[in-house]
Amino acid sequence: IFRAVAFPAHSRLLEMMEYVAANPKLCAAAVLAAGSAAALRWLAVAPLPKSGAEERAEMAREWWVKYLKITPHFDQLIKDLRIQHMGSDGTARGSITAAGPLLSATGTLHEGGLFELIDTFGSLAVMAAGHPAGVSLEMGASILSQVHAGEELNIESRILRIGSTVGFTAVEVSRAGGKRVASATHTKHIGQPPLERIRQNLLARCVPVARWLSQRALRRMEAGMAQLPRLSSGTMEEALALQLLPSGHESGAHSYAVEHLHLLNGYWAGHGASSAGLLAAAARELLRSNGVENACFQDISILYMNPVPAWKPVGLFVAPLASEEKPGALSIAVEMRNESKVFVRGRFTALLG
After folding, report:
1. Cα radius of gyration rounded to whole Å, the chain
2. Is the pTM of this model over 0.85?
3. Bridge partners of residue 167, in order along the sequence
4. In angstroms, rounded to a whole number, what is the distance separating the alpha carbons of residues 209 and 103?
5. β-strands 255-258, 243-244: how paired?
6. What integer pLDDT is reported at residue 159 of this predicted model?
7. Are 314 and 338 in contact (CB under 8 A)?
């Protein structure tokens, strides 16, 4: 009586346990439910199994090769990319010829083309290690020399560090002879909801099923995207279609752009590399308006703050900054934003000599 009065919740719990124990079927169902909950909880936090890791990395490589052939998004610029290796240790290696829309009107590799390679190979390294390739958070590059049309480029990437929600990668771009063209870093969001993590862990333990589901998803994607238009531009400037605004425009913007289908990513928002290309184009136009032609950017850093909306005009705001670190250089800050939020911020260091 004292227990029922002083501890009513405890009393009800005891009654429930006695009732379950007296009913064998209910008892079995309770044990099964508890076991299933424990298994799902374990799958939501457990690391991916080491067995089959190389097979999963090869499956990711096959998926990317097929995806680049069928996508109507910005990644179609590297549809001829040769992905030679993806290792479960978080490494990737490939090559491509600098040609087509990867190039600027002057016949050199455009910053948008360079960042497309950086973005892709950072994602390849993350996926090779079994993690999802989420959105980009930050990219930065030090450009050592220009790349001209027809040159063969080798790209290598590796994981620097992987956390629970963020992955850090390094990307090196070099000529076929081994001379380095650019060194870059790429930070990606790799966090997953618990249910998606459980699904990934289950598929990692049954690679044939994962391969079948991946191939089915690619077939559906190919069928759905077959009727969508493909990029027909000859240069990166034509693809980006940056529109200059008159000096002193009421919006305060230097220029504006619209992220059309061919500038989007797989999430149907502005692609990180196309956004970097637009920021670089705006910075270059500022230099041209000040009499600096064919400027070379040496250091570039891009910070992604919000998804860039598709099919809506966004303004680009450009401001020159004094560079005390490097004499003969000019730093330029560029923002892509609308009236309510900032989407992307970039900083470019141009050599004026």
Report:
1. 26
2. yes
3. 162, 188
4. 40
5. antiparallel
6. 97
7. yes
Find where tokens 């290792």 sit.
87
User: Residue 212 class from Cβ within 10 Å (0-12 exposed, 13-18 middle, 19+ buried)?
Assistant: exposed
Answer whether residue 203 shows pLDDT above 70: yes
For each of the domains in the chain, give its residue range(s) and CATH number, in order of start.
11-37 (no CATH), 53-226 (3.10.129.10), 236-351 (3.10.129.10)
Q: Edge-to-edge, what's the strand order for the sheet holding 313-321?
A: 82-87, 91-97, 152-162, 166-175, 180-189, 136-143, 296-304, 342-351, 329-337, 313-321, 255-258, 243-244
Euclidean distance between CA atoms 170 and 180, whole angstroms: 14
Helix axes 24-45, 8-22, angle to 10 degrees: 110
Report CA dihedral (67, 106, 343, 124) to the nearest 10 degrees: 30
CB atoms within 10 A of CB 63: 16
Retrieve residue 16's tokens: 């429930």
Distance CA 353, CA 345 (A): 26
Q: How does residue 171 score in pLDDT terms, banded at 50, 70 and 90?
A: very high
The string of pLDDT tens digits covering residues 246-286 is 988 888 899 999 999 999 998 999 999 999 999 999 999 99
Residues 6 or more apart whose CB falls under 8 angstroms from that of 335 comprise: 316, 317, 342, 344, 345, 346
- Quickly list H helices, the chain: 2-6, 8-22, 24-45, 53-70, 111-128, 194-204, 207-225, 236-240, 272-289
The CA distance from 170 to 186, in Å, is 6
Token pair, residue 104, equals 């600027």
First-to-last C-alpha distance (Å) of the chain? 92
Exposure string of 315-330, with b = 16+ CB inside 10 Å and e = fewer, is bbbbeeeebeeeeebb
Closest CA to 105 of 353, 331, 294: 294
Tokens of 310: 């598709």
DSSP for 145-180 reads S--BTT-EEEEEEEEEEE-SSEEEEEEEEEETTS-E
- Residue 211: HSE in the Cβ half-sphere, 13 Å Cα cutoff: 11
